[in-house]
Design goal:
With 281 residues, the chain is mostly beta strands. It is built from 4 helices and 18 strands. It starts with 9 loop residues before the first strand and ends in a 32-residue tail after the last helix. The N terminus is likely disordered.
């Protein structure tokens, strides 16, 4: 977690202005207000995931730029796109993006950044293309790959102003719009340690289910590898059934490692993941 990037809403202004824009001696009031927000996401180690950027604007929008920060030890950015989102459904493909994305993995110790910008009317016939005012309009898809040892949770946050730009929104008349934003969060998938059969409880049936999966040909595969890793050693084998049985029936045995029998994330990084479990939300 990087302390300079709290997961909270803050107020940002256009890079070269406050909430006012001065042109040739005239002061123009900023036009309306906008809220930028990211969805949250779940991710498995070494697996792709995406967060969707949305805008809630009280007035028409002519363009925007976002500067996004992330933990570069946990996440690898792969693309930013607009295809299939409400932005393109409303106005078609954007006319200008600088570029589809750019990122700096060494923005700060442990922190990478992504810069993405879009202007909606830059090509002839200059027909005044703009994004109409609306609530929670999806505008961009930020795609990442989780690291091979991804575990726990990590924030995706906006930066107001940085060395390569900042986060801002302009109206169809290129006037700055006051912006608030809320970052997103990426967490490894929730599971119960030892709940091999994914029925929301940890009992002898889970140890049996794991033994069947390991040693009976043609048996179904693991539902959630992390849940089946009873001793949290990053592997699924006979010792995990033993750990589950000991925790259940041998007095004085250590409880199953975190998150235990309650839904939670894996505090240790490994390559197992939990792609299919459904008993935890």
């Amino acid at each position: 977690m990087f302390p300079l990037l709290p997961r909270s809403s803050r107020v940002a202004l256009l890079l070269f202005a406050t909430s006012l824009l001065t042109v040739s001696g005239f002061t123009l009031q900023s036009s309306g207000q906008a809220i930028l927000s990211f969805t949250d996401a779940s991710a498995d180690p070494s697996s792709p995931f995406e967060l969707i950027l949305s805008i809630d604007a009280a007035s028409d929008v002519g363009g925007l730029q976002v500067l996004v920060a992330f933990d570069n030890a946990a996440l690898i950015p792969t693309d930013v796109s607009t295809s299939g989102l409400e932005l393109e459904a409303l106005i078609g493909p954007i006319e200008y993006a600088y570029p589809s994305y750019s990122f700096d993995p060494t923005f700060a110790p442990g922190v990478g950044q992504i810069l993405w910008a879009a202007i909606f009317d830059t090509l002839p016939p200059f027909a005044g293309q703009f994004l109409p005012a609306g609530s929670n309009v999806t505008v961009a898809r930020f795609e990442f790959l989780a690291s091979p040892t991804f575990a726990g949770c990590t924030p995706i946050d906006f930066l107001g102003i940085g060395p390569t730009g900042g986060t801002f929104v302009v109206s169809r008349l290129t006037m700055p719009i006051a912006v608030t934003w809320t970052g997103g969060e990426v967490c490894s998938r929730l599971f119960r340690r030892g709940d091999v059969n994914d029925d929301s409880v940890v009992d002898i049936a889970d140890a049996i289910s794991l033994l069947v999966t390991l040693f009976v040909p043609g048996s179904p595969g693991l539902i959630c590898a992390d849940a089946s890793d009873g001793n949290d050693d990053g592997r699924v084998d006979l010792s995990d059934s033993v750990a589950i049985l000991n925790a259940l029936f041998v007095a004085g045995s250590a409880p199953l490692p975190a998150p235990g029998a309650s839904c939670g994330t894996d505090p240790t990084g490994d390559a197992l993941g939990c792609a299919e479990g459904a008993s935890c939300p």
